[in-house]
Amino acid sequence: MARYAKALTPSEIAAVKNENIDFSDIAELDESFWRQAELIEPDRTERITLRVKRSVLEHFRAQGRGYQTRINRVLERYVRAQRGSR
Predict the structure, then answer these.
(1) What b/e string do you get for 54-72 counting C-beta neighbours within 10 Å, with b at 16 or more?
(2) Are the C-beta atoms of residues 2 and 21 closer than 8 Å to each other?
(3) Is 57 helix (H, G, I), strand (E, B) or coil?
(4) Does residue 51 or residue 86 have the better pLDDT?
(5) Residue 1's pLDDT band (boundaries 50, 70, 90)?
(6) What's residue 62's pLDDT?
(7) What is the DSSP string of 23-52?
(8) Per-residue pLDDT tens for 4-27?
């Protein structure tokens, strides 16, 4: 098996041949696995217009890329906490 000194780019990964990949640490997925498998649909996001205080938006934007995801994560935790307190 080849060892790489640095991380490969996506195009370099795509060029690696299957016979050069070590699959030995990946468990076989037999029939019992697929019988017990459960399809979990992702919780889709929805594009909306939302008014937020400028100070709140600036706080999240100052943390860099992914600020909308972080805002959503905070709101999701709030919703879970509210559901748990009932």
Answers:
(1) eeeeeebeeeeeeeeeebe
(2) no
(3) helix
(4) 51
(5) low
(6) 97
(7) -TTSPP--HHHHHH----------------
(8) 788 989 999 999 999 888 888 888
Dihedral angle of Cα 71, 50, 84, 77, to the nearest 10 degrees: 0
For residue 75, report the phi and psi dihedrals to the nearest 5 degrees. Answer: -65, -40
Q: At which residue do the structure tokens 């600020």 appear?
A: 67
Residues contacting residue 52 through CB under 8 Å, at least 6 positions apart: 71
| 20, 27, 52, 57, 60 from 74: Cα distances, Å | 43, 36, 14, 13, 11
- Tell me the C-alpha to C-alpha distance, in Å, between residue 77 and each of 16, 72, 83: 41, 9, 10
Enumerate residues 6+ apart whose C-beta is below 8 A from 68: 60
